[in-house]
Each structure stands twice: as structure tokens, then as C-alpha cells.
Amino acid sequence: MARSQAPMRRHEARLPYFLLIPGLFLLVGMLYPFFLGVYYSLTNYFLQYPHLFRFIWLDNYIKLLGDSFFAYSLKFTLAYTLVAVVTQVGLGLGVALLLNSRIIGRSGLRAIMLMPLMMPPVITALMWKIMMASSRAGILNHLLSFLGVGPVNWLGDVNSAILSIFIIDTWGNLPFVSLILLGGLQSLPYEPFEAARVDGAAGWGIFRYITLPLLKPFIILAATFRVMDSLRIFDVIYAATVGGPADATMNLHMRAFFYAFQWYQMGMGMAYAMVLLALVFLASYFLMGYWKRAAEQTTI
Amino acid sequence: MRSFPVGQTAWRWIRRILMTGAVLVLVVWTLFPFFWIFLTSLKQPLDVIAAPPKLIFEPTTQNYEALFMGQKRGLYHTTRPDFPRFFLNSIIISCGAVGLSFLAGVPAAFALARYNFRGKEPLAFLFLSFRFAPFIAFLIPLYILFQKLGLYNTYTGLILAYQLITLPFTIWMLRSFFMEIPTEVEEAAKIDGCSWWGVLTKVILPLSLPGLAVTVILGFMFSWNAFNYPLMLAGRQTFPVTVGAIQFIAYEQVLWGQMAAASLVAVVPQLILSLFVQKYIVRGLTMGAIR
Questions:
Q1: I need a labelling partner for A110 at 20 to 30 A (CA). Which of A54, A292, B71, B285 fits?
Q2: What interface predicted TM-score (ipTM) does this complex get?
Q3: Model pTM?
């Protein structure tokens, strides 16, 4: 009996690796180009002049340090992420609370909220681009004219272009935050609220000292996903402004794309990509750790 | 407050009005773009650029006709972006990508859900990390590789590139569904003499059938949304609808009406499919993290 089980167990031990073969095969196919890219970031790879190809160590990265365009892209990427995520999580919390309260047509509202969520971001951007026409023919400008606000050059002006990107991004992703937080609100235990009410707490007090702390893991999780996606936002910017006007919406991702596919400097493009990847990695590392601690504290 | 019942009812009314207002704002904010794009798609070119924008106009289906026939007719010249072809391309690439991910993902998810082995969690997280990686880090080397390997502008190449989107998603979604099945059921099957193959095909897969369907549908939808990989790895023959829709921004002008029609047609599958997976969309977007 024991003898027949031993090879069986060895077979069992090898089984998961056997099951993973197709997946690992594809994984290698995904990792190979990645490491090739890391290598390219250490070269001066210029697509149109392959004979000049040279390994230049960290020269691309050193060049970035003194580059004012890089500084702007880095600043824009970080500032955009910070402002967008804080605003979207704040608004999303409001929407979640609204959807969680007793209002008519709650399930219908929830279904409507799902619509922007499954839109291709490019199409979302194109839809808004139509509404954001700069002249008085644009519907947004027409609506604003009732408030006495003169025609805004939505995507054509440095400041309003950044705002426009934020609006489009928020339309597409606010439902994501709202629905995660709504799910969180609906999963909260009943007892702490009951106890607080017995103790005479009401409205704001309950929200501040019970709802918010219990909701913290969900807020962090929603923020984590939003941070990662805002750091590397591309589709919306590409479709709406292509990084313009005057490079105002050129984040690291757009700049990497431009280096690679506009100027064919694959090495420099990869260097930008690596900086962005490092940012995403750092953000995910800290946010995931933060999320784990919050989840443990609230034991959800 | 308590001592003024009148004030309390007034407060309740203010609250109710504020909340109704908020609901209205939310509904208009979410639905208005769809409404406006629909109107725009029915407008003639001169009506699109009319200032102030026209709410009442003579509707035309010619934007849709131009979209599907690619014909040139008077003001309706088009950049001939072959939209039906793009639509078909989207279907082919998305189905291929989901199919491949499914074949590789089912055994992988089964292993990651049900077996303990060295390097399990790091491997799972390696797959997950693709969800967050900026696509450009893969796009640049893939572009160079595809040119060399002859995969550029081919369905095969795109289906392989789309694995970066669908494979991590499929593995994590399926894993989360498989883990929901109690191990007792599996143990019972093993006692009955089932091998791992029997456990997988007779227990795990039938019990997670809804999960499999959700994973396939959501994977298809995420592939449909993909834009940046096909933007550089596809050519005119293989463009999906997302890249096709942006072709209406021509060099000198934007064909607004046709672009609106294209945008709506491009999201029809998404709006229909999302009806079937409503409850799972958030779970899908968080790779199974939120149930």
C-alpha cells in the first residue's frame, strides 16, 4: 500500500507544473519581449539607423535627469494621478452613499452606472471630443453659455485640455470607484452601527467614526486600481489631445510612445517606459501593503 | 433639532430634494453623452457644426450608410475606413485571444487554485502584475519582434499580443471561481477513483460553469476595448473597431457624424454583453479581488 502511494505522490507533486505548461509557455512569450525591452533601454536603438546600434549603459537614463520635457512629463503624471484619484475616490464615495440610501430606482441607477464602465476608453474619449467642440457648436459650450460662461476651448487650451482629460477619465471610471465602495458599504456588519445609534451617535458622527474606518480597505483597493490606471493613462489622451496642446497632456506614457513611434528612438522610449514601470511598481508595492494592513485591522 | 419637529420635517424635505437632485445629475451625467452621440450620428455634416447645436433637425441614416458601405456621396465623403472589416477583425481577434487564454488558463488556474507547490504565490503574482504594467514596456519590443518575425499586421500576432490582457485576467478570474468550490466535493470524487482529469472535467468545470461563462464574456469585452496594442501592431487589414473609429479624424477634418456612428456601433457588443455579466463586472475589473 505504502509502496504504491509513493510514486503516486511524486506524480501529484509534479502535476501542478504539468498543468501550468501552456500558461508558462505564454508567460515566457510575455516576459521575453519585456526583458528585450529592458535591454533596449540601455542602447541607443534608433529604428531607422540600425547600424548605429550601440550598448550605452545608463546613458538614456542619465539624459533623462537633465531633460526638462522629462521633468514636465513626470510632474504631470504624478500630479494628474494624485488629483484624479483623490477627486474620483471622493466623488465615488458620495455616489456610493447615494446608491446605498433609500432612493427610487436604485437598481436602475446601478445598471446605468455600468454603461460607461464597459466602454472602450478610446470611444469614450471620441464621444466627449464631439461634445467638447471648441466653438459654439459644441454642446458643452452651448450648455455653459446658459450659465454665462463663454466658449471654452476645451481640448485646445493648455489648462482646459488637462481638465478635459480629467472629465473624460472621470466619466469612464467614476462608476468603478462607486461600485467598489457600494459593494463595501453593503458588506459592512450591522452591529457597530446599531451600537453607535444606541450610544446616541447620528449622521456625521456615524459616518466619520464607523462607516469610514470600516470602509477603509475598500477605499484603498479602489484607490490602488485607480492610481495604477491613472499613472499609465494613454487611450483617452491619445484620442482626445494626442499629448497636446503644446505637450500639456504629455504624460510619461505618451512621451514613451512618441519617442518610440514618432521619432523611432526605441531605446529612449524604453527608458521612459522603465521609469513609468518603476513608478507603477512603487505605487503598487506601497498601496498593496497599506491595503493588507487595513484589511487585517478591520478583519474583512 | 429634536425639540423643533417642524424643523426636522423641513430638514427631511431638504434632504430628499438634495438627494433627488443628485440622482438626476448622476443620470444626466452618465447618459447624456450616449444621447448626444446618437443625435450626432443622425445629423448631416452641416447640422453637426451648426452653432448653436441643433436639437431639432432632419435626421439622416447616411452616416451609418457611409460607415457600412464606405461610399462617397456628396458631402458624405469618407476616409474609407472599411468599418465592417474592422468589426469583423475585432470579433476574430477577441475570440482568438479569449480562446487561447482559456485553453492555457483553465489548467493553470486549476493548479493555482487546488495544488500547493513551490513558487505558487510568486507565480500567481507575476501573472497579476501584467494587469498593472504600462503597455508601452511590451509594445516597443513587440513591435520590433513582430516586424522581424512577420507577425506584424496578422491575426496570429495580435492574438498573441492580446494574451498580455486576457491571460492574466483569465487565470485570476478562473482561480477565484475554482476556489469557491468546496474541497469536499473534490475529495469525494477522488475517493470515487477520479484522477485529476476526472476531478477537473467532472467536478470543477461543471460546477463553475457560470464562472467560466462570465470569464469568457468579460475577457472578450476587455479584448474588444483594447486599443494600444493594435494601434501599432495591426495594419489596415487587421485594425479592430477601436483603432478603426479613430480613423475618422482625418488629416484636414474630423468626420464627426461618421465618428459618432462608428463609436455607437463599436460599443453595441459591449452594451449587449454587459447585460449578461452585470453582477460580475466589478469582480472582473479587479481580477477577482472583489466578489
A1: A292
A2: 0.92
A3: 0.93
